[in-house]
Amino acid sequence: MDLKPAAAPAAPPSPPALEPQIGATPAPAAPPKEAPRPGFEDWSVPMPLMDISGLLTAGAAPRGPLPGSGDPFAGAVQEQGAPQPSVYRARRGDTLQSVAHKLGLSSEDLQAANPGVKKLRPGQLLQVPAPPAPPPPPVSPEVQAHVADRLASWPEGAPERDQLQRAFGSPAFAGLTPDEQRKLVDYASGKNPISTGGREELARLAGSPKTSADQLRNLLATEPGAPSVVAGLPAIAEPSRAPYQINGPTQADNTFASGPARASRYDVELDGRTIPVFLSQDIEPKDGVMHSLDEVVRGLAALPASSRALIKQVNMDGKRNPSDAYWGEVYHDPGFRSYMTAGAAGVVDIYPTVYRQTQHACDASLIHETGHILSGRTWGNWQSDPRWAGWDAASQKDGLSPSTYARSSRTEDFSETLTLYQLSKGTPYEAEYRAMFPARWAAMEAVLAAPPPTQ
Ligand SMILES: [Zn+2]
How far apart, in whole angstroms, are the C-alpha atoms of residue 373 and residue 418? Predict the structure, then answer.
């Protein structure tokens, strides 16, 4: 029997693993209906930095206009390629003092730029020093109050508090826009693991007086501390698991992502309903390690009820996802390995992984997969449906991402956000993440508050 959705919007894979490919997998003839959930073998790999070339403008900043009134550059020579005059050609009657006055400089600065020059001859060239950079505008009282509020969450005398205070008092910080200042404060002042990485890098930067506002912008753009995948964050607490009962198995034929196979069917009773779990009997050992039935059922039992209600069926595939090559292309990750996949129809596929995955990874990744089901039912195909525009706007407004993997597509961004949202709910990190991802949190709560769309 074919229990796969006939026309389900592609639900993307979960985070990719950076492990070497095991065996050559032929590329699927047609794009997969569902997206893969990559394995988590890459958790300990340092997060790659985003390519931020093009974002930085420090080297291209033009010199500000020289101060002065009237026509101060009457005698100025435009150097080839230079945006502003930097050389002055002396005219009859000029003195160092009069030229300095004309250019709005102090005589000392002009003299320092032209050592050895005493008396001016007409036609003589003078180096015009760059005017001092204007002081950054003062940090607004609103942002100052916000800084004070966030610093107050750290005990007096804590080294983190001192680091933050120094960074938020720096000229580089003052050079950011108020919106950037707020983002940086909310990013770096939390106690959660994402903020911790950001704060350490911020402290390093703030230790140098040469640090520029652009370097702080770069910090926001590259987001050190962001996990590869949200499921890779340490478990905040052992989840509570709903009571369940497993009935079976019975023998069944099932269509897995890797193809039709004989399976053991277990009927899992949870919340007064039954979720069938098909465990493939066609196992390819070289494709890796499978979760046990018990681990998967415990994962189902740990799901928030709203997520569990979205799952109609679970397939425990004995082989890797044949669509891995396709997703590797879509996500520009040739080594991509699916861990789990799901689509709007509510079927979750789980694949073998090279390394054994923990119960926590299973718990968190199942939440992630229900994000694909939920978003697919709410806004349709993520690759084409315009109803995704609101989510895109929320992501852009927040700027920061819940994980590196969230950046691979809008649907991964949604699923990673849902995972972080649910894992942190009711914990000390909840308020911090809400402050870091305010637009996404609001959009997520609107989705969760709406009656679950039916398939
Ligand atoms: Zn995914």
Answer: 11
Ligand 1: centre distance to CA 260 (Å)? 23
Claim to verify: residue 432 and residue 313 sit in the same structural domain: yes
Q: What is the pTM of this model?
A: 0.74
**Distance (Å, rounded) from C-alpha 87 to C-alpha 114?**
11
Strands across the sheet with 76-77, in order? Answer: 76-77, 87-89, 125-127
Q: What number of CA atoms fall less than 13 Å from residue 274's CA on the CB side? A: 8
Identify whether 250 is part of a domain. yes
Distance of CA 371 from the midpoint of ligand 1 (Å): 8
User: Could you give the CA distance from residue 366 to residue 363 in angstroms, rounded to a whole number?
Assistant: 5
Q: How far is the CA of 124 from the centre of ligand 1 (A)?
A: 68
Q: Which residue has the tokens 């402050």?
A: 435
Q: For the segment 309-350, what is each residue's pLDDT rounded down to a tens digit?
A: 999 999 999 999 999 999 999 989 999 999 999 999 999 999
Boundaries of domain holding 180: 140-226
Helix (H, G, I), strand (E, B) or coil at 125: strand
